Amino acid sequence: MKLKPLGDQAVLAYCADEAAAVRFAAAVRTANPPWLQDVVPAYGSVGVFFDADQIGTTDVTAWLLASNENLGGLTPLRSPQSVVIPVCYEFAPDMPRVCEQTGLTSDEVIRLHTTTEFTIYAIGFVPGFPYMGYLPEKLCGVGRLPSPRVRVDPGSVGLTGRQTGIYPLPRPGGWNLIGRTPLVIVDVAAGFFPLRVGDVVRFDRIDSAQFRELEGERLIVASRASHCTGVSQEPVP
Residues 10, 62: one domain? Predict the structure, then answer.
């Protein structure tokens, strides 16, 4: 693990791989030293943010280095959850582009997308946007749109490069849209953010009628149901 300062209130830890970053972030949160303010994992790195009035970069770096082996033995405060998210692939304005670039049919794209378990490796871009990897090899390599859309509807499911993700809020965006979930996955005003780094997501194909039935309901992750209301999604077996 390599450590570098990130401004004067954070240290950036570079881990061996994405799985190591998820474990390290969970362990630091569990240790919860008094100066800790936030832990932000992003693929193979983890940002550890601290209260600069209590401690400095040098001491945080020393603590992380000294604690690294011990942190691995801590039991995380929460375990990653498996979540099924319904997606209607009828709302797919960029499906023809994805098919053209991959040489796959739309049914093949959907089959690959729904039979892959994706890990959330980062949350960002907008509040609650889950960056998930990795796409099956046959779906990899589709670039972003030449010109980003001015507005992407919330719930839109997109892909680019090796990643897939869900737009939780109406925002501009340049990913290739291949479907849309009817469920609310973010409510900023209510502090509703059910998806976390480390969670495993599988997509379930639904039709437009099912989409309308579920539209506006909240995604509920089983162990976090007490904090949410709406449709409960069964964990992946």
Answer: yes
